[in-house]
Amino acid sequence: MQRFSAWKLVGITALCALTSTLPALHAAGSYPTRPIQVIVPYAPGGTTDLAGRIVAKAMGEALGQPAVVENKPGAAGSVGVAQALRAAPDGYTMAVSGVSSTMIHDLLGRKLPYDPKTDLHAVAYLGSSGMVVITSSDSAYKTLQDVIDASKAKPGSVSFGSAGNVSPGHMASEYLASMAKIEMTHVPYTGDSALMSDLVSGRIDIATVGIASVFSHIKAGSIRTLAITSAERFSTFPEIPTVAEAGQLTGYEADIWNLLVLPKGTASEIDQKLNATINQLMRTDEVKNSMLQIGFTARDMELADIQTFIQTERAKWGKVIKESNISLE
After folding, report:
1. In which band, very low, low, confident or very high, does the pLDDT at 191 lie, cut at 50, 70 and 90?
2. Residue 235 and residue 154: Cα distance in Å, rounded?
3. pLDDT at position 329, please?
4. Measured between alpha carbons, how far is 99 from 168 in angstroms, rounded to an integer?
5. Least crowded by CB within 10 Å, which of 56, 156, 288, 292?
6. CATH number for the 130-246 domain, one of 3.40.109.10, 3.40.50.300, 3.40.50.10490, 3.40.190.10?
7. Cβ(131)–Cβ(256) under 8 Å?
8. How far apart are CA 294 and CA 20, in angstroms?
9. What are phi and psi of 258, to 5 degrees?
């Protein structure tokens, strides 16, 4: 009787465990059955917002349920990302996370409402956008190599502008300086407007900005574009060399990129479905062309490759921060 009771207890325990798992498995299999919330952690109108909306619209159509974008700006993206990561891990709340909220601020020691290394659960790569190194149209610097040579001849003599301290443009420029073994003087701004005014008037020598923000300037020839920070040339402006080419800096790459992140604990079936869906969308002409219009290149990435990508990027930017003595101040 005792042996029978023990086995009976084991069976009941196993049955309870299986029963408790069934709703989650069923939910993952039929996912989604209601609208999905996609949090964009920046104000409306920026390239991250536009890229997020392109993906959300296409994803909603592919999954048969609307993907509704909610803008939740603050603290360089960490406020919106934190809100998504606090949600139930059921696949119905997710966020767009860029390099700052994924790793830069954590590497700089900023206290965040989540731990990017353990709480941030990335399921899809949402494309990337290069930045461009620019100067005024009448600048003495005709090429990126001219900038590097001038900086080597007189360290600190070349000034570079960015949209703010530890902004993507600042980080990309410091990475360039680190690889080229040069010193330049950083001039941070609070946005691109004042920066462009000072660049065109010659108050600063060069700047690194998102390519979409200077589309009209490039087409009009009102600025000189020295290089693009991506690993490959941008198809819209194939005449612009990469930093690796123009500066003879093999391996240089500094893109603005976005990931789709969910709370940890989300069912693997949901992860796989979202990853497969978005990868398929990234290969369609509609998404590719929409992304190109805002300066982004659509690119698919498998789940395992996303984790490798994050680790590689984290190691790269951690090294840049250390070598360049970058801080939040």
Report:
1. confident
2. 35
3. 73
4. 8
5. 156
6. 3.40.190.10
7. yes
8. 46
9. -135, 145
Q: What's the full length of the chain, in residues?
A: 329
Considering the entire predicted model, what is its pTM?
A: 0.88
Long-range contacts of 238-245 (CB under 8 A, 24+ apart): 240/132, 241/144, 243/133, 243/144, 243/176
Q: Say whether 258 sits in a helix, a strand or coil.
A: strand
DSSP per-residue string spanning 178-217:
HHHT---EEEE-SSHHHHHHHHHHTSSSEEEEEGGGGHHH
Q: Which residues contact 90 (CB under 8 A, 6 or more apart)?
A: 27, 266, 270
CA 124 vs CA 146, 272, 275, 305: distances in Å: 39, 9, 5, 10
Cα(170)–Cα(187) distance, rounded to whole angstroms?
Answer: 9
- Residue 233 pLDDT class (50, 70, 90 cuts): very high
Task: Report the amino acid identity of residue 293.
Answer: Q
Note the Cα 291 to chain centre separation in Å. Answer: 14
Summarize the confidence of residues 294-323 as an average pLDDT. 96
Instruction: Kindly tell me the sign of the dihedral angle through the C-alpha atoms of 145, 148, 149, 150.
Output: positive
Q: Which residue has the higher pLDDT, 109 or 17?
A: 109
Task: Give the helix/strand (H/E) hosting 9.
Answer: helix 2-30
Superfamily for the 35-129+256-324 domain = Bordetella uptake gene, domain 1 (3.40.190.150)
Q: What is the CA radius of gyration of the chain?
A: 23
Between 2 and 266, the higher pLDDT residue:
266
The pairing of strands 159-162 and 185-188 is parallel
| pLDDT at residue 28 is higher than 80 | no
Q: 3-class DSSP state for residue 161?
A: strand
- Distance from C-alpha of 49 to C-alpha of 39, rounded to nearest angstrom: 9
- pLDDT tens string 94-126: 999 999 999 999 999 999 999 999 999 999 999
